Sequence to fold (80 residues):
Amino acid sequence: MAETDPKTMQDLTSVVQTLLQQMQDKFQTMRCWCAWSLTSPLDDMSSRIDDLERNIADLMTQAGVEELEGENKIPATQKS
Fold:
């Protein structure tokens, strides 16, 4: 038997608790990393889409194009 093998029930309980705590710590670290690795790119993409929408709206305003119902767009000078 190895020197670090538990000799009593109390030793065994202590070893199991330590292992469970280590596993929980590793799981928590992985979970945080996974959550960050998924949300960070989504946040970046959302921000870029918002910027793109603002830029398109600015360009439409500069070109004198206004949005009607739906997706039809006409120059503001041709409005009835």
Q: What stands out?
A: The first helix runs from residue 9 to 63.
